[in-house]
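haha ok so turns out i had the wrong file open the whole time. this is the CORRECT one, sorry everyone. sequence first:
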Amino acid sequence: MDTFHIHITGRVQGVGFRPFVYKLAQTSHLKGWVCNATDGVHIRFNATQEQANEFYQACLRQKPDQSVVNQSTLSKVATECFADFQIVESHSGKLDLCITPDFSLCQHCREELYDPNNHRFHYAFITCTECGPRYSVMSGLPYDRELTAMDPFNMCSACEAEYHDPNDRRYFSQTNSCPDCGVQMHLADADGVVSDQLTSEELMDLAVERLREDKIIAVKGIGGYLLLCNAQSRQAVSELRRRKQRPSKPFAVLYGSVETVATQFHITQEETSLLNGSISPVVLLNPRQHNDLPMDIVAPGLEKIGVMVPYAPILELVSSKFGSPLIATSANQSGSPIVHADDETGLFQLADYVLSHNRAIVFPQDDSVVQLSPWNQQRIVLRRSRGMAPSTFCSLSNDKMDQLALGAEMKGTFAYGVGSNTYVSQYLGNLSHYDNQLQFEEVLSRFSKLINPAIKQIAIDAHPGYFTHQLGKTWAKEKGISLVEIPHHEAHFAAILAERKLTEENHVLGVIWDGTGFGSDGNSWGGEFFEYTNHTITRIAHLAYYPQLSQDRMAIDNRLCALALSGPENRHELQNAFNSTEWSFYLKSMQRPSLLTSSMGRVFDAVAFLADIAHTNTYEGQSAMLLEQNAQKAFSKRQNIQPYSFTLKGQQLELNDTIDQIFHDRKNNYQGISARFHLTLVEMIRKVANEGAYQKIAFSGGVFQNGLLTDLIINALGPVFDLYFHQELSPNDENIAYGQLAHLQYIDHKKNRNLKPIAQCV
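then structure:
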């Protein structure tokens, strides 16, 4: 017989691929071996050509559910003779591997968790080859137990037997453990450990008892500590808000099962699949009328709420024993990173008790957050983290060199382009906060050790004040690495072009709308239209500039946004919103602004103020969310809603007419301002697309987290244009790092990107 070699890359480690190949080889009566390596899975075996072809196709066709194959090859190699088929020791080489994310609790393990005859009954760390922590426990590659946080736990004889039994679901499960040899829990209060003499079952019961007493419990999950409290207790939720210094930002709520969620919320099949799937993110849902949550304190002012079900067995047990919904939020002060280290002292500023365990978290992660648009069920990733990071399957063809992109500021992420793989980190917080900067550097350092890249080029945002900009400049200087500044909004455009495979297209219109970004002319951009042609990005249009008052305060104080956009004939109507000193100061600032902006995000804030929907932002995006919510209500009640007027002059979309008409509607107490405004945005896109004769339109930027706007665009423009929205990545600044890599790969940096009129783009 001949000898053949199969090489498979993609998400093929930590998903039971080697056990699957072993069983398939046994069934096919083949002899050889399979192993993990840093460039995927390798299989070598004896067979005839026909047998080899059949085995190869079976490997791809019958692969484990959690696996994703990027590339595969079958080749004939030098003849070897094998006595049997084995799983052999892993070996290292050039990195060409998707890093497997953490998986939510599978149905098999959930059933065993509640089976009193199973020796893992109520074991809070039950896992198998189909579920459990992966990325969060990795300390090295390839994915083997000794390179994970499970290395300190020596398997007992029963677990060893499962691990080596080809017919067992835990065959070569690297996270395998049980109550006799595995992870141990403990419960503590501010005075110290209170669990010395208690069993794991008693610890869990005690924690649940404290939850019923309206106490706040910090629970160590997969990616970090979560704060839990009784979601139906106004006292408990209010106290949690006080401790977290989080006055109005909504909390997510943990329910025991999707079946329970369906009794309390309107939920579609797609949303059910998201909650029940291997990612199991937080999903935004609309509550039913009889919902028993105090919505005014759980999600003040909002009609959508983040809902989750237990994705880890420790959360499954707490939720099941408690029997009612629980608030579940990251254990940190607002603006700080999620707590994941084993030093629990600081947690007692937030929690009354800490339910912890002795398995280390290598890579901390928040929960991923997803919503589906209301009408078309378009998936929108709001936060890409646990279960979704770090590998991405919209990989770039990195044929130039190994590259690192450090992203932006508000939504910290970094990205590596190494060989044929692209890695985009989990969400790492707002990097204007020092604690988040420290965690960003820590995660970046650990990830670099994990993949050991030979970086030759670093990409940074062009904003000189960003932490990542300064970090990149420092690293490039210290290591003698090439450094490239990428304009913020061009990175957004490059991200959607690369994700949706548009990099070889020409004449693509990019609609890039967000709150802020450093523009090449020194102003703050955010309402931009770009063209992509011949690997060149050109800014072809933008919202007309208006004054940016008091720097970043405009993102908090909606009065300033309304004032900056209002004309002289309407401005006096805003005077009562300011005291005399403020009014005088801001009028002078309007006459000689130190900075101009084209931000679409601040236009949303202005309209929210003028429509009397929101006057301030106590958290990012609050006014935009309330405006979207109000517009959706208006569409459900009214027919024949018309957009406002606007003017396209050369490269500028002027909103003077829009704002004047909003003031008119405001005087007449018209309740459909928000709906008319959303329709106006759709018509702006149509106008620019028609003027430039574009067929393909791509969208990126935080504004496109708006599900209603997304649906209005799809419904109005979808029949005429080819529309491209983000699918795997978030439209917000989390995609900037990926977009910076894409910019390095696909954009010709030597070509001129100066402004040109739309007429020249045809």
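The longest strand covers residues 2-11.
again sry for the mixup
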